[in-house]
Each structure stands twice: as structure tokens, then as C-alpha cells.
Amino acid sequence: MARRIHSSSSSSSSSFFRDLRARELGASKAPNLADLSSDLGGRGRGVLAVEHFGGSTPPLAISSSKSIASCRLLAVSDEDGFVSVYDTHRNLPSCASSLEKSAEARVCDWVAHNNAIFDVCWIKDDAQILTASGDQTIKIWDAENRKCLGILVGHTGSVKSLCSHSSNADLVVSGSRDGSIALWDLRCMSNSTNSRGGARFSSAAVVKEAHSLMQGKRARRGKAASMSITSVLYLKDDVSIASAGAVDSVLKFWDSRNLRSAVSQTSVEPQNGKERVQHGISCLSQDSNGAYIAASCMDNRIYLYDVIHLHKGPMKVFSGSRIESFFVKSAISPDRTHILGGSSDGNAYIWQVEKPEEDPVILTGHEGEVTAVDWFTSEVGKIATCSDDLTVRVWNIGERNYKDANSPTAVRKRVTAPNIEGRRLVIDEQAACSTDNPSSPHRHNAFEFSTPESAKKRNFGSLLSEGLEMQKSPEAELSSPSSVLNPPPSLKRRTICDYFVTASES
């Protein structure tokens, strides 16, 4: 029978349940992505013209900030070597006014390289920005002061892709047009500095010709195959690295602790038993938990892989877009329910992960090839796309849903349940004084209550008191709950590569 409790804490209890109800029922859990728009402009959506000193330039990469405190910021890198940061919570211009009013949404911009910037990445709670450039270097920038903190030198070709470690932002992996994959540790700098005073870094490890064809093989039409690395990922197991290249449709996986050779690899299976035609991969992406990897292939398909079952090949295939250049990218939504992809036909596409056979949502508006795309991790139903039409579009589900578009798990108000003071029975203070420790005369002894001890427990305790040794078998140790928190030292930490190798050997 339920009891109705009346006390002075009723107002606190009411507030607790009111906040709980508002949090769970007030959030938008399943926005209709077909309602995404950008043309009209407004708060949280609009069209941004990428221009500097009166001249427009094609954007090449975009990256939304990841921390909740600055989740509204969008970094854009372009062909002229600029990095621009926009505040997407401001009133963004419409398509008609983008040239005149884009500067109002821009927080700052600066010349980061004297060459095109192919990738940009926020790190360290959005305090720093990494830029990968055609000048063969990677630079570290203070996002607030726009000061160069360091330069990563070692590649001999344009740096096409970079990715930071999920839990240690000092570890960075990069891929270059020279065919190499490099691993960097930002805690280990050389004694020299660059001309601007920033630190100079050398790679901690390098894999050369990571995706080159076997010697003697030639590409179609008799031309030498490109060795370019198009995309790299630091996987969420914090050990493995994934890479893809322009020469074939193979995904390779590396152990960052030993980069001598790939631990495993997987590729697109031939369609209908036909001989496999080698297509390059333009982009790799993963969800926030690292369960899936999406690969945008030059055969106009996006392949989805389960990282635990890589040996089975792609689990799902998504089609409808046109991927005709290596600048066309894709991205899995943070909750891995959707895939957003650019396209050479001037549209952006959104597929449902669980329904690849259904027609995707098509976002129209760009007038050139849609290249880089990104999701805003802390705002449901908000994305960004950039295009060769010299604009970046921020899409949102509408002003009416803007205030409650935050994920309930992303932004939560801390509430406290009513506190009921427990009772404790204490004996007389004079009798409670400790005779064993005179220096603590005011230490109180409280009665302790416990459940009755079972006969089995008493018998077990008597065995221990008699000095009998009781040891667990190895099988029992591995199956016990404590083995999860305290595994035997002989057990090696498993990564996704271990699952792949085990499955392929069986």
C-alpha cells in the first residue's frame, strides 16, 4: 500500500519531479530531418559566404566544436589558407543576403597557411584547432588568440586528413598525399622553434606507402596509381587506427603501438560475383561510440562496417549520391542513426542507418559539388555542409524546435532529491570515550546493525579461521565478476583488431 508523505521537504520533492518531467518530455527526441532548411536564414540556420577582403573562396573542410560550452561554433578552412570561425547561434543570413551579412556571424578569421587547408579539427575542449595543409605541414592554433602554438613537420606531400585520439588529444594521426601515415605526440617537441615562435614537432612513427599497389601493377589507362592517403581515424578503443587511400577500396587497421604493418584489413566485396574493380575511398567516419565506420567509395556508394565484425565486410550499403571526387565526404551522426553525405550533383543526402533500402532525404540548395559535411554533436537535427559554390550552409529543423533541440543526455540540469536526515543511536558521551586512543576523547561509538548471518557464511568463516587455504581455479577467476574490474595480469587488452584476427583464423 502506497504512502503519501507530507513534510517540509514537499516543495523540494515537487521541484525534483517537475524538473525530471520537463527534461524527459520537453526535449525533441526524434526530429523530422525532412524539415531541415537553410535558405531563409535565422537563428541557428542560414547560408554563409566564405570570403576575405571582398574575394570569395571555396571552403574545403568544416568542423563543429564538440564541447557543450562552445557547441555553437563552426570552423571552416578554405582554399586560400584561411580558417574562419562562425557562431551559429547568431542570426545567420539567408541565401539572398549571404554576401553582405556573413561577416556578422563570423567570430574571427586568420591566415593559417599559405596554401589550401584540407582538414581542420578541434581538440582539447575546443581550446585548440589543428589544420592540415597543402604546404605539407600541420599546425596547432590557440582558438581564442589565433596564435600558432606549434608546427608538425615530416610529410613530403599535402596533408589530406588528421584525427586526434578520443581521450588524449596530444596524440594525433595524419595521412598525406605522399602515401604515408604519421603518428604525432604533442607532448614531445624538438628544441627548435619556427619563425613565429611556435614549437616544432617531428613524428613519433611513420608508415610509408601504406596503401600503395604491389610493384609492377599499373592503374587503369596505364597511369601510375596514386599512393595518397585520403582519410585516417583514431578509433575509440584508443589503440587502433583506420586508414583509406585513393588507390583501392581497402580499409586498413593498425595498432598504434606497433605500426610496422597493418594488423588487418577489409574491402568492398565484388557485386554479383564479378571481378572487383578498384575504387578509391574519399572519406572515413565513425559514430561517437566507435561502433560503426562509414566509408565513402568512388563507386557512388557508402559502406557501413561493424568494427567488431570487420571480417564480414560491409554490413549495409547506401546509394543515391554521386561521389566523383575525393573532396566529397560523409559523416555518421553521433547517435549512429543517420549518415550524412555530400554529392557531386550539388545536393546533400541523409540516410537512415537501419533502413538503407529507403530513399534518403535530399537537401537541395547548393549550386556546386557538396564536399565536407558535419553534425553538431550537442544539437539534434542541426548539420553543416560546404560546397564549391563558395558557401557553407547551416541546416536546422526550424525556429520552433530550436530551443528544445538539445539532446536530453547532452544538456541536463542537476537536481537533488529531498534529503531526509537519518537517525543514529549514540550512547552516553562519557562511556563512549575511547580507552585505546586517549588522544581522541570525544570519539563516539554508534550501534551498528546488520542482517542476520547465515549458517553457510558462519561455516565458511570457520574454515578460514582454521587456516584452510581456498583457491579459485583459473576458470573460476575468469568467470567471476571481480575479474572484470581486476583482470589477471596475464590477460592482454583486446582491441577491435584482436576480434578481427580471431574471427579470420576460425
From TrEMBL:
One of its GO terms (biological process) is proteasome-mediated ubiquitin-dependent protein catabolic process. Keywords: Repeat, Ubl conjugation pathway, WD repeat. Pathway: Protein modification; protein ubiquitination. PROSITE patterns: WD_REPEATS_1, WD_REPEATS_2, WD_REPEATS_REGION. The keyword Repeat applies. The keyword Repeat applies. InterPro entries: WD-repeat_CDT2_adapter, WD40/YVTN_repeat-like_dom_sf, WD40_PAC1, WD40_repeat_CS, WD40_repeat_dom_sf, WD40_rpt. GO terms for cellular component: nucleus. GO terms for molecular function: protein-macromolecule adaptor activity. Residues 433-453 are annotated as: Disordered. Pfam families: WD40. WD repeats lie at residues 110-151, 152-187, 363-397. Belongs to the WD repeat cdt2 family. This is Denticleless protein homolog. It comes from Ananas comosus (Pineapple).
